[in-house]
Amino acid sequence: MATSALSAGREGALSAINTRYHRPALAVFAFIVIAHWAEHVVQAIQIWVLGWPVPKARGLLGEPFPWLIKSEWLHYGYAVLMLIGLIMLRPGFTGKSRTWWNIALGIQVWHHFEHLLLLIQASTHSYLAHRAVPTSILQLFFPRVELHLVYNGLVTVPMVVAMLLHRRPGAGERAEMKCSCAEPTRRRQALAEA
Asked: Is the pLDDT at 88 greater than 60, yes or no?
């Protein structure tokens, strides 16, 4: 009995974030994703513009909390959070916006796998390709800072495209939507005429 109540509660919560709470859930999720990507952008600026050595370029949060940048658990936790968010918010999307959301989800599945590989290596001290540090598969070909900046961009861009399309659905997509994320039709017409 308790298991079915728990299951019903989960389904109810999932339904709520994809219907009446979809818009605020997307806003919170987008803030987290973009803030994380901004950390990678700041780190890239510290390296390429300010000329800092890679170990000293820790982004904004890494400056007061240097252990953050070195924690594979933290990076993996974010990758899992991102994956869970993309999966949980997916049912609220329809049509073209769902296609773009699925693209972001597919890229994040790979990104998550790469972080899982890094976490396993950090935990076992057995590193890929006999490297001296945890190394992801694509890190064999690209430096870690640049690779993760690109990974986060490759997930963020289609996610943002999905959200923009979701706000401006076609008539068929609007009819399928169960949330209130779409801009009102009159407002869209006024913007198009302006």
From this structure: yes
